[in-house]
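Dear support,

We are seeing what looks like truncated structure output for some complexes. This example has two components. We would appreciate it if you could run it in full and send us the complete token output so we can diff it against ours.
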Amino acid sequence: MTSFCSRCLWLLKMSVLFLALGIVLFMFRSVYLYPESSSSKAPLPQPSLAAGMLKLLPEEHVESLFTHDGIWLFPKNQCKCEAWKHQESYNFENAYGQTDLPAVKMRRQAEFEHFQRREGLPRPPPLLAQANLPFGYPVHGVEVMPLHTIPIPGLQFEGPDAPIYKVTLKASLGTLNTLADTPDNVVQGRGQKQLTILTSSRKVLNFILQHVTYTSTEYQHHRVDVVSLESNSSVAKFPVTIRFPVMPKLYDPGPERKLRNLVSIATKTFLRPHKLMTMLQSIREYYPDLTVIVADDSKEPLKINDSHVEYYTMPYGKGWFAGRNLAISQVTTKYVLWVDDDFLFSDKTKIEVLVDVLEKTELDVVGGSVLGNTFQFKLFLEHSKNGDCLHRRTGFFRPLDGFPNCVVTSGVVNFFLAHTERLQRVGFDPRLQRVAHSEFFIDGLGSLLVGSCPDVIIGHQPHSPVEDPDLAALEKTYSIYRANTNNEIQFKLALHYFKNRLQCAT
Amino acid sequence: MTSFCSRCLWLLKMSVLFLALGIVLFMFRSVYLYPESSSSKAPLPQPSLAAGMLKLLPEEHVESLFTHDGIWLFPKNQCKCEAWKHQESYNFENAYGQTDLPAVKMRRQAEFEHFQRREGLPRPPPLLAQANLPFGYPVHGVEVMPLHTIPIPGLQFEGPDAPIYKVTLKASLGTLNTLADTPDNVVQGRGQKQLTILTSSRKVLNFILQHVTYTSTEYQHHRVDVVSLESNSSVAKFPVTIRFPVMPKLYDPGPERKLRNLVSIATKTFLRPHKLMTMLQSIREYYPDLTVIVADDSKEPLKINDSHVEYYTMPYGKGWFAGRNLAISQVTTKYVLWVDDDFLFSDKTKIEVLVDVLEKTELDVVGGSVLGNTFQFKLFLEHSKNGDCLHRRTGFFRPLDGFPNCVVTSGVVNFFLAHTERLQRVGFDPRLQRVAHSEFFIDGLGSLLVGSCPDVIIGHQPHSPVEDPDLAALEKTYSIYRANTNNEIQFKLALHYFKNRLQCAT
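Here is the complete output from our reference environment:
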């Protein structure tokens, strides 16, 4: 009886003990596992979707979701250039003879691989973070200049308590250290690619982590080092970008900010001096002192009596884009205005308005209109293994913030104002000798943000034939060069195929 | 009695139940909280560092740790240009008069802010991940082209079990959707900036997350959208980079890969036709058919009878870098070799060797030596609020991989081979009219990877005066232009101050 009673008491005690434990466990459970249930007042909806019936949207639906201007802008294995609506479609391969093509493809691939190597392409696959990592760390935006040192922000350990903490950091393109002053046995590998922290104090661990530094040790431009942070089985990885800052190339507009210290006009002429002279006269009516840069590949050099005209002669018939590239290479002002040699300035040709647009927006280039023609077009690129697909559509993407009459697009007419430094960076490919225009905007894809403001208008000289027999002869020769011959077209298609590594276009 | 016995049995049952629970809890605790203690055999070290004595390394120690070539490459509030060893030191502000300086500073700041706006600078502070987030997500490398759609990889929920799961995704520059086919009440906000998932099935939740898509909706170049992923109080944030791919500009070396289809030679001349002609002759001894591009700003144009020389005339005395920029603007081959007009080709001037280096490495520019002078120098940049500090040191950073006799550096002598497209992107600033050289490599900092191979040697024509009186007169005028006048030096210092936004240099 006594013994029974004592066992009974013991059971009672144990019961109470476990009951207490149970309550603690239950509270923990309810607070931690169902945080909502405690807070949320309204009854929760019970969406009905059995885990069994997992399925994807039908492809037609996905196509309709992510189609823009008739182009399905979703990753696919292969892009196509099917003629769409009244669009033409070009297959650039056709620019080469079938017998040459295999060799051309090999050369193109070899050149592309060299290009990729230098650009650090293709980029590595995205870095994925696992769930429930016990670390705080910087997922994005840590940058260091080559050979420089930076503190790595946001490093922290918030794992469970332990008698001893061991955290290891690893880098590959640089070395690690910590500004924390600790005994050697706490931090090992200072100034090496692997840094190990070993301490029994969480406070010490986090103090050391908060002061970890990364030092770039190899002189490289634009590389990404993936640094890892490990403890037991948990591994966090984050990128450290090694890169030089962009070197600014600023232009001093001068104390009075005169237009002539902000803008130069550039043009290219060939075998039609009378048009050029007429254009120059029209410029002087409205802008008496702006610098005008003229590139000329005619046979005879001209005499131009204008102290603000810079005149350059080129080998005969060197070509249209060579001349444009020469002209912009000589600009020393922040902005350059491009005009053709047969344009005509009027009181609607307000350069100041275009300057105001570039000053107040992020645009690199802003076009006006030539007698109402703005020639706005959008360019879309689709990736594909053996060359991208280019799609061209007339029109614009969106209105320009702050300028309701202007828009953002990919390409504009031959009358535009541009940031000189940006224009020079893209350049006009001197390989394009004759008819060429859009080629420049294709080369500028991704590096030039282009806008269009139709209210700034320039005129065009009449196409009526000239009286003077010499000039007429020149114009005749000019028209021959100006003609977009079949060879020229083939050359341009081949250039898109090889140079831009495009496969086709619509 | 009976009642007591039943209560006693109940207690017994409860005890067993809680005992079981207790054991489970204990096992969980031992496995989860002390994973090492179970695995590690050796006794753990007990580093001695009391959390109380947290301290940082003394500044002198930090300086010594992160000093390179005498420059402390660690972030500081202010950089200085103290003359170091036998280095000179320049304070670029001194190029301006004290009365002009305040206005100059304001103009420079305004131009710098415009530049920053267009470059998306300054970059936002790093994105920090908190510890123990219940999500898997991509920390780095997710990219989308403007207006395109991508699946977001690596999204996953691994939080604790719950009767109902609610996960919300938010974007700011684009919209979100999922390819998972679900009832409307499970996924809300498809095609909008906020997507909400509500389900009682973890499997369904993860299926939906695995198929989330991001669509860029604003046409922009190079922006970073920070997408957030939320559940209860946990928030993960990751970057989605909106950017156009770099448009390749490849050159076709042609079926036989002849040197003349790979390389053009570019030079600039002024008032010393005899030197130019001697140089051209020396080129033809070794490279009979390479295209040579000549930019000339002398008074009288030359007659050059060489079908492979392209000759360009400029306004008189337009200047040194203007001419260099003109010359490279006309190149149509993959590589361009820069030479001065008074150099002399010899059998040691092996262009093929330099081509081989650029073909097999990631260098953009590789210099040779002019009679043994390689003029190698390194450039270091230190950031500072009111302008960076530039440090120049002779020598190189490291040997060039694969070419033991070549090195990687920042600047080289006036005899170098370069990737045409890269060279044109940096360009020679036409504002630099007279003595200039390093200015080009400073402009190229961060965009040109430069190497030097001393074994490729070009000669230099003797400085002995000419007999011919006309030529002697020309050389006299030339020497006046060539002189590095005090005004010229002031102009260059001012250019570094304003254009490159540099504060000082050593």
